[in-house]
Amino acid sequence: MPLNIKNVLVCDAVDKSCVELLEEHGINVTYKLKLPVDELCKEVKNFDAAIVRSDTKITAEVLAAGAGSLKVVGRAGAGVDNIDVAAATAHNVVVLNTPGGNSISACELTCILIGALARPVVPAGQSMKEGRWDRKLYSGTELYGKTLAVLGLGRIGREVAIRMKTWGMRIIGYDPITTEAEAKAAGIEKLDLEQIWPLADYITVHTPLIPATRNLISTKSLAKCKQGVKVINVARGGIIDEQAVLDALQSGQCGGAAFDVFPEEPPKSQVTKALINHPKVVATPHLGASTAEAQVRVAVEVAEQFIALNGTSPKYTSYVGVINKEALAHYQ
Ligand SMILES: O=C(O)[C@H](O)COP(=O)(O)O
């Protein structure tokens, strides 16, 4: 049975290609960005579907408010941790994402941040703007011959490995699911975490935030690393314990850190603020997927899946990003 999506509420800044494609297929689109939760609860009743990135939280409260009308929540991106998938399933709301649509962009930002930790381009560039010429202050280290540990060998982790290997880095990695052969194909030596800690010069995380990955990099694991190890998080806030990194930066156990994601966004806690302001930290405001190419890709992929769920075009038949098949079964 087709879902018959007629009216879509776009809650976060999604590329216009999504709207164009939906409208070409007879679906009305309304943009209401950054609604406070009470207004979102009022609005959601008037729509068959909503589209979000990571800013808008589709909580149990929002889903209860939309019960009876809301049928789909599309995530123009990968992580669905801002959507209460269990509550959505309970209300027969299909949750879908765009797997892989922004992987290359997230991967490239990771590689750029690794580079920015090796060569202090951020503070050096700032010093030039302030009129200084401090060549001695901003010396760096080569990446060539260093060891990069990739924790989480999904799409993004593997793409990072492939690129950084071409820079002459040794790539080691950990993932409980990826096989040794799959890792090898991306040039990665698959090891256990306990083997990884003392070998890594750089550690980058590419896992979802789940109980098993919360504080994966902690005071305990940092203590097992080489002195001066550098850490990068373009995945989710909370995978790297911020207080542990702050302490390790102060003791010299950690030689630098790059964060694109934070436990709370925008950050409010004193720990996160201290970390962002640390001279050895490069921080960016959740920009992993913020490229022209990725935003068109995820926008189009969401729209295509909505059209496929409506069953109105032979061109679009795949809804590969559906997370809760149980909710979809309700309509089939
Ligand atoms: O999960 C994702 O896809 C990324 O974190 C990007 O999030 P964004 O769409 O809010 O930029």
TrEMBL record:
<dbReference type="InterPro" id="IPR036291">
    <property type="entry name" value="NAD(P)-bd_dom_sf"/>
</dbReference>
<keyword id="KW-0520">NAD</keyword>
<comment type="subunit">
    <text>Homotetramer.</text>
</comment>
<comment type="similarity">
    <text>Belongs to the D-isomer specific 2-hydroxyacid dehydrogenase family.</text>
</comment>
<dbReference type="Pfam" id="PF00389">
    <property type="entry name" value="2-Hacid_dh"/>
</dbReference>
<feature type="domain" description="D-isomer specific 2-hydroxyacid dehydrogenase NAD-binding">
    <location>
        <begin position="113"/>
        <end position="288"/>
    </location>
</feature>
<protein>
    <submittedName>
        <fullName>Uncharacterized protein</fullName>
        <ecNumber>1.1.1.-</ecNumber>
    </submittedName>
</protein>
<dbReference type="InterPro" id="IPR006139">
    <property type="entry name" value="D-isomer_2_OHA_DH_cat_dom"/>
</dbReference>
<dbReference type="InterPro" id="IPR029752">
    <property type="entry name" value="D-isomer_DH_CS1"/>
</dbReference>
<dbReference type="GO" id="GO:0004617">
    <property type="term" value="F:phosphoglycerate dehydrogenase activity"/>
</dbReference>
<keyword id="KW-0597">Phosphoprotein</keyword>
<dbReference type="GO" id="GO:0051287">
    <property type="term" value="F:NAD binding"/>
</dbReference>
<keyword id="KW-0560">Oxidoreductase</keyword>
<feature type="domain" description="D-isomer specific 2-hydroxyacid dehydrogenase catalytic">
    <location>
        <begin position="8"/>
        <end position="309"/>
    </location>
</feature>
<dbReference type="Pfam" id="PF02826">
    <property type="entry name" value="2-Hacid_dh_C"/>
</dbReference>
<dbReference type="InterPro" id="IPR006140">
    <property type="entry name" value="D-isomer_DH_NAD-bd"/>
</dbReference>
<keyword id="KW-0007">Acetylation</keyword>
